[in-house]
Design a protein that fits this description.
alpha/beta; 13 helices; D-Amino Acid Oxidase, Chain A, domain 2; 18 strands; 5-stranded parallel β-sheet
Length: 436
């Protein structure tokens, strides 16, 4: 039950509490265990670990980290290796395409997968490594205090009971509505929205483009994103994850019922029905989508601190950003690994949390800001502004250098450019702790 840090004869025993069992929280638990810490407990507000959500992308910098944790064999068969990213204007003119993952020369693939597959795999790994008791459900953090060098978390269950947990370190991995963050930023309020509403769903459909392409279509405000996250080998069809986003004064309710699905289908059809898609038939895709969910597009303002003594933030709790550029889950995984590395290599845990923040916060702030101007999808806004009626030759609208620079600049900001990913080691090397 202890994390042994060998600094000469000094041995530190630490109890670590993680709030939230999303991608950030579960990956942090696994990474800490891989670091030699077995007193880690994850507290989740939901009564069950529910593998919820539609599709997401894990970029090679995060796949490298999941591979170092030994998870790639479990994940890859249930994911699609993304081969290309192709961006189009509403007229079907190709604005930009680039290879992705292994096809682009990365040593690790880019994986498109269902969030539920990733959550299931990570939760199973937490239980395998740390035991069933390491995942506590029906435990919502409702209070945070500090006493005599220890942090006390107050967790409430649905039956009204409350448990107090005293811990050496507390890691807030509780997402965009983080209670841990709110304890330090009580005036922050709900996440701001940019006025865009997103509709999401999945449907089985025939393959399009390479069969493992991500297509992004857009004008100056609207976006339609499509990519496969699973394959049915018997029919050779793929499960397409789609996201439609457009400015709309919609209430931020998350409609899920059949009636809502009908209304949502119609809203999406009205916005994108006349667009030229690179393969998928939009009407069929919408008709075959059983569950359509609607969300406001929200993020968080960058904050000047993530770390307060022996408490820090990871994932969306630290740096929620607009969902452009495939960085939400990716950066949550990287946070977890970098945090574990610093805890494994610093004698003073509070200094480790500071070092983690110094490494990650400036870069994540840049990415949050970049995503507010649509990240790499900015090329679609520019294409629409420069050629609203479309074009015969993209070189009449952009130079190749300008397009390449937008893409490369974003990859460098997110530290998933090929040079960096291929040439550096995973955030935590297997030998980091034994070498200490
Ligand atoms: C239900 C759900 C579905 C999603 N679907 C998609 C999707 O389809 N595609 C996509 O790209 N992204 C999706 N996301 C967002 C995506 O998972 C995150 O942007 C990214 O992975 C970062 O993850 P995270 O672990 O930081 O936060 P999250 O994934 O939001 O996880 C936070 C966890 O903390 C728990 N929690 C919240 N408050 C408390 C509290 N007070 N006490 C204890 N636990 C708490 C939540 O229940 C949740 O399990 C979804 C998130 C959620 C919660």
């Amino acid at each position: 039950m202890c994390w042994t840090m060998a600094y000469g004869s000094e041995v530190a025993t630490m109890r670590i509490t993680i709030v939230g069992s999303g991608i950030a929280g579960l990956t942090t638990a696994i990474s800490l265990h891989a670091a030699g810490c077995d007193d880690v407990t994850v507290f989740e507000a939901d009564p069950r670990i529910r593998p919820l959500g539609f599709g997401l992308n894990i970029l090679p910098n995060a796949v490298r980290e999941l591979a170092a944790l030994g998870l790639l064999d479990a994940l890859e068969p249930r994911a699609i290796r993304t081969r290309e990213l192709a961006m189009y204007n509403p007229h079907g003119n190709l604005v930009w395409r680039e290879d992705r993952g292994l096809s682009a020369g990365y040593r690790w693939p880019q994986l498109s997968m269902s969030r539920s597959v990733l959550i299931e795999t990570l939760a199973a790994e937490v239980r395998r490594r740390l035991g069933d008791s390491a995942l506590v459900t029906d435990a919502r953090l409702v209070g945070l205090t500090h006493e005599a060098g220890m942090t006390c978390g107050e967790f409430a269950a649905h039956d009204g009971s409350v448990r107090i947990v005293r811990t050496d370190l507390l890691i807030g991995a509780d997402g965009i509505h983080s209670a841990v963050r709110a304890a330090f930023y009580p005036a922050e309020g709900p996440p701001p929205t940019n006025g865009m509403t997103m509709y999401r769903g999945t449907a089985w459909h025939s393959r399009f483009l390479t069969g493992s392409s991500m297509a992004v279509l857009g004008d100056d405000t609207r976006r339609l994103v499509l990519y496969p996250i699973d394959t049915d080998r018997s029919t050779d069809r793929v499960l397409i994850n789609w996201v439609a986003a457009f400015p709309a004064r919609e209430p931020d309710a998350r409609g899920r019922s059949g009636r809502d699905a009908t209304a949502h289908r119609e809203s999406v059809r009205q916005q994108f029905g006349s667009w030229s898609l690179p393969g998928p038939d939009l009407v069929r895709l919408l008709d075959d989508t059983p569950d359509i969910q609607r969300y406001p597009m929200t993020d968080r303002d960058p904050v000047p601190r993530w770390t307060f003594g022996n408490v820090t933030l990871v994932g969306d709790a630290a740096h929620a950003m607009y969902p452009t550029g495939s960085n939400g889950a990716t950066q949550a995984v990287v946070d977890a690994r970098v945090l574990a590395r610093h805890l494994a290599t610093h004698a003073d845990p509070a200094a480790a949390l500071q070092a983690y923040e110094e490494e990650r916060r400036p870069q994540m702030t840049q990415l949050q800001v970049s995503n507010r101007s649509m990240g790499p999808e900015r090329v679609l806004t520019l294409a629409h502004q420069r050629a609203p009626q479309g074009f015969d030759d993209v070189r009449d609208v952009f130079s190749e250098e300008e397009l390449a620079e937008i893409s490369r600049g974003y990859a460098v900001t997110g530290q998933f450019d090929q040079d960096w990913v291929n040439s550096s080691r995973p955030a935590v090397r297997r030998d980091a702790w034994s070498a200490k």
